[in-house]
Amino acid sequence: MSQLKAPYLLFIGDAKDPLSIKMARSAADWSPEKCLGELRLDGCEVTTGCTAMSLDEAVSRGAKSLVLGFANSGGYIDSAWLPILQQALASGLDIISGLHDRLNDLPELVAAAQSNGCTLHDIRHPSAKLRTGKGYHRQGKRLLTVGTDCSVGKMYTSLALTKELQDRHIKASFRATGQSGILVAGDGIAVDCVVADFIAGAIEDLAPANDADHWDIIEGQGSLFHPAFAGVSLGLLHGAQADALVVCHALGRSSMRAIDDRPLPSLVETIAVNEQLARTTNPQAKVIAIAVNTSAVDEAAAMAYCREVETQLGMPCVDPIRHGVSRIADKLNG
Amino acid sequence: MSQLKAPYLLFIGDAKDPLSIKMARSAADWSPEKCLGELRLDGCEVTTGCTAMSLDEAVSRGAKSLVLGFANSGGYIDSAWLPILQQALASGLDIISGLHDRLNDLPELVAAAQSNGCTLHDIRHPSAKLRTGKGYHRQGKRLLTVGTDCSVGKMYTSLALTKELQDRHIKASFRATGQSGILVAGDGIAVDCVVADFIAGAIEDLAPANDADHWDIIEGQGSLFHPAFAGVSLGLLHGAQADALVVCHALGRSSMRAIDDRPLPSLVETIAVNEQLARTTNPQAKVIAIAVNTSAVDEAAAMAYCREVETQLGMPCVDPIRHGVSRIADKLNG
CA–CA separation, B232 vs B244, rounded Å? Predict the structure, then answer.
């Protein structure tokens, strides 16, 4: 896709649920230097933590893009937003959306963007020409986060690891595979939206050959055990050709996301199946650590759980938010 | 998709390679009752076996659809065909294409179709509203063909098995997942063309709950071991929720299709991994037979190979073309 232009004005409308503004919060948390402020409507009950400002104020301070900060159910573009989008285009801003509905399917927006020299970015929809995968060995080191389920912290863990490596002056790039990650990184590919034939090929292009001592930290999606999304996860695993895998998990979840009565797989099974299938394209692929979202329990219980897992599996187990990821990064240092 | 209207006139242009007219040949082989004839251009060196006839002759005999019988590399619509397509529409025929390029993206064809009350069918592109999979148990019996590689006879085996079961008065439906299969069946979904998030969900919709004694025979795609297409294969495996799996294989292939230096997996490994992963959505999933394309060797060698596999694996092993599939169907009879 064409490069996203910062600084961003994060549009969060009249959102009431913090989860509904994941796009905006990801950018604010991980690319604060790209985020000028947030644009709120009456009734909004959440915040990204950025300064609230009007559209005009943001433009006068140098904003380059208006970001639709939402991930609403259904992924639709609310018609109530259209006047604001028109105003943004009239002010010369690009618009960035991670919704399923496309900005580029709305003729009035397309016309306004053209006449103002602005770009409409539908970052969930791949714009690059895609190809099928090959699985040929490529230079460089790659790490992929995989999961026992969806929404278990794969993006967070990947971003935290990239930052930790960069802080250590190890060459590392975050490779985004979902809309929130793309907004943070400025580019990437929403792998769940590519045509099924191209899943692995898209990831081969996203994380191409690189310096021998460079790490691509690839954001995983879904789970090999999820009955809806395992195809995406397997294509991603094959395309990533990862040397290192980190298994992400959420403590205390009783069923897989959006599915009734489906317990999560064990960590042991998750490790075994991911390593087994990853070796189709990288015979050296190995799970090196576990990253757990322990927010369901208190600090002491979280630490006890992680220690138990470490003893059982013989590899680091941390909550990236509570404990940081330095012990995972240590495994990549050698 | 809307129902395809037979009888078909199979357009094979000036094709010279029998493999390049797979769409047309599949229809002629498996739905001869739907195929009125073939339309050839000067220089054509292949045939479907159907009677050659002109467009006007086909129309006067009752043809309802012109089928683009090709699967050219790149999947493009050759501009040399456009006058024929226009003539077909002017004569009231629908047009059916399995190419990657869409008939519906050509404004002059769309206009001609509208003014003549005809339909342009891009059968490789899903028209149904798709959803994500759930993996919930559904009634009815299902068989899925899986493979050591792409292009190893999964469609042929599935069609042959469906016919064999129907000949035995067992309730059975062929479920098409590729463009050639769709043309034969009259409907289906090209699973390699759906958005990655929807692979499993598309197959749940393609093969929905049915009578307890009804078999859906689902055409497989790709291979769990193919570095380009395994994501499609796994989503299909999960969505199919198959009770019975048939492993398809091609004898004498030195590397996986379109990939250098990648030997095919063994039958033992193919069985083990398919059963393991299929059990995510059907704990009873079991490989019941092997179907081998033995065309690379002579009759005696083919028989010797199949006998050896049977001894090793303890299940029927047949070449569906040379030996038929009755011994596979026997396994579904009980």
Answer: 19
